Amino acid sequence: MLNELRDIAARLALEAGALAAQGRRDQPIVADTKSTGTDMVTQFDRAAEAHIVGRLHELRPHDAIVGEEGAATVGTSGVGWLIDPIDGTTNFLYDLPGWAVSIAAVDHHGTAVGAVHVPSSGELFTAVRGEGAFLTTDRGTLRLRCSDGTNLATALVATGFGYAPERRVRQATRLARMIGDVRDIRRLGAASVDLCHVAAGRVDVYFEEGLGPWDLAAGELIAREAGCRSGDFRGGAARPDEILVAAPALFEAMAATILAADA
Ligand code: IPD
Q1: How far is the CA of 66 from the centre of ligand 1 (A)?
Q2: Is 119 helix (H, G, I), strand (E, B) or coil?
Q3: Distance CA 46, CA 32 (A)
């Protein structure tokens, strides 16, 4: 059952990624703003979400659906889908690599499956709860494993910034206070991809605040299934408002560093 949901998430992420990438090549972008003047949505975010929702209605007619661009379907099956049709819309808008389609299915035990597809690299990250995390490319499929880093001073740390100016200033102030405690900082522009990078050991840590549930659901499962530790900054469960995902031996030190920088 969960493998079937994983296959649907993966297939729809690939389809939506191809649709958005092709649209980006063929047509001029029409962009609109959402929560602030820099929080963008394009016609391709909406088209990708409409595609995924339409396919889910065919394949899983009794499931609930929530999408970043407004999809909201009530379900009766106990399974719900969280969709970010284009995570990293700013990258997409500027034709930078690293935007992704992120799709997760949740059930009464939490996130059950996740798929994150990055069209610019052709990568597809997937996980099924309890069964590990995997990366598929045209060279094959490999199991993901987070880094075995133990020293925060040599940890590569990814993060992101919200769209509201006051929040961004707070986040940047904190970063300025901690940048001397870590190897370096990366801001790549898509939370779901940052999470997959922790899963793949390409960065040691990722943290952020103020995400949408669709930004993190698939990537957080993929990171946990790759052996990462996930939580909020104070010992609770990871949530859209506050998420820290790290190589297990780095988690406590990173949480303490974030809190100290905020004090
Ligand atoms: C955003 C990206 C970004 C993160 C923001 C998210 P969107 O999602 O994931 O990396 O820093 O917090 O809102 O708006 O491009 O789907």
Answers
A1: 16
A2: coil
A3: 11
